[in-house]
Protein: F-box only protein 32
Organism: Lanius ludovicianus
Amino acid sequence: IHSFCKKDDHNKENLFNTINYDVAAKKRKKDLLNNKAKTQYFHQEKWIYVHKGSTKERHGYCTLGEAFNRLDFSSAILDSRRFNYVVRLLELIAKSQLTSLSGIAQKNYMNILEKVVQKVLEDQQNIRLIRELLQTLYTSLCTLVQRVGKSVLVGNINMWVHRMESILHWQQQLNNIQITMPAFKGTTFTDLPLCLQLNIMQRLSDGRDLVSLGQVAPDLQVLSEDRLLWKKLCQYHFTDRQIRKRLILSDKGQLDWKKMYFKLIRCYPRKEQYGDTLQLCRHCHILSWKGTDHPCTANNPETCSTSLSPQEFINLFRF
């Protein structure tokens, strides 16, 4: 400061004016970020180092809020391979981890959720999945708002009431959605041979989708009741031991695989499968999406990566 003030072109007044200008500029930038709920919190790097203890190089812990801010979830929801993964992660956070997010992370959470809803309204896909997510979040917020005096939520209560109103509005939009018929008049699903129809139906991992498909046409209703179809679905999601504990016989004395499936999903979690997941590098402990470059010193970084389920991702930040 002494050398700076000795210059002929500057005096103490100019120095303090410069300092005040920098402080005011930083404050305006911070206010702009905090006041605009639509503003996404961006980072140049799309990866984060997951550390659970203090070292000479790093102090403190990596939190779930930091990871949520740093990882590129806004772009991930536009990728069909990552969409279900992000939605499942949002649901798990809504159930039990919402209060562990920082204020900025909570804003990012709501912004990403709004983008998810808008995407579903535009392409008319995954409607039931997002309805369940919104209902889970609304139920959790109703419980948390009642305990607002215990400082379980970051921010003003009026802000959270406004967000709950937004959730109700999104739910109403999803309930009012009208599925439009495509203009294309080419080959339809029912025009395919029965063996191909069954082959495609075997790719569905949710029994509710099979039931909905069976309601489209009488021929599909017959196919959706195929015992082998429901048997494969049960064997895909559940172990033999779980199935043996929930056996149900039909009137003809045969195993009723359809009823067994819906009974099993009430007792055990279903198998989760995603096209693309977050990856944790065992060598450098960096968390990122598959295909994202990160500063790894391993000779073959691809062999060091481990796929994480949404629940395993959250478990990383439980200390």
Q: What stands out?
A: The radius of gyration is 26 Å. Confidence is low (pLDDT under 50) at residues 35-42.
